[in-house]
Amino acid sequence: MQSPEDFLLTYLTDRIAEERREQASRSSFRQKYFTRDCLFDSRAGTIEMFESEVIVTCFQNGDEADVITAFTNPLVRDQACTKNRYHLVQLAEAWLIRDVVLACLWCGGQFGNTSCPACHGEGWLSESEPKTLPKPPKYKRF
User: Fold this and answer.
1) How far apart, in whole angstroms, are the C-alpha atoms of residue 83 and residue 94?
2) How wide is the angle at C-alpha 104 spanned by C-alphas 103 and 107, nearest 5°?
């Protein structure tokens, strides 16, 4: 059976290929509605970000595993490195991704920083376990 690391490497490679196909299929739509230099809805930098993702570590406990990766976002000014934590489960003879948790962007993923309004010191943000975030500022209506 494939190791969790090998499964995730295959996933990362396939995700890049799928993103290339998706962007190619949207090409005529973008040409119809956007100028070449308009970044809105372009997914600019997505392939580069996916290509930069590398496995940092893997923890396996029976039929579950956590694989932590690091990547850079080319659209972020300082191109700071951030991390994902993939929760994998083994079903039959295959691994599947159960959840992907992002390192907290508010505090930089600092575990124990209980003053962080987003992760409350956990260092990670999960879409399946949303935290209560502070209300954003109100915008003026025109």
Assistant:
1) 24
2) 125
Do the beta carbons of residue 99 and residue 126 sit within 8 Å?
Answer: yes
**Closest among 82, 60, 53, 72 to 5, alpha carbons compared:** 60
* Structure token pair of residue 65: 């595993």
The predicted-structure confidence for 73-127, as pLDDT tens digits, reads as follows 776 666 567 899 999 999 988 999 999 998 887 787 778 888 888 888 888 887 6
Q: What gap in Å lies between CA 4 and CA 10, rounded to an integer?
A: 10
Radius of gyration of the CA atoms of the chain, in A: 18
Dihedral over Cα of 6, 127, 44, 106: its sign: negative
pLDDT (0 to 100) of residue 14: 98
Delimit the domains of the chain by residue range.
Answer: 4-126
Neighbours of 110 (CB within 10 A): 16
Long-range contacts formed by 108-111: CB under 8 A, 24+ apart: 108/80, 109/82, 109/83
- Of the pLDDT bands very low, low, confident and very high (cuts 50, 70, 90), residue 133 is low
d(CA 65, CA 3): 10
Tens digit of each residue's pLDDT (9 = 90 or more) over 37-51: 999 999 988 999 999
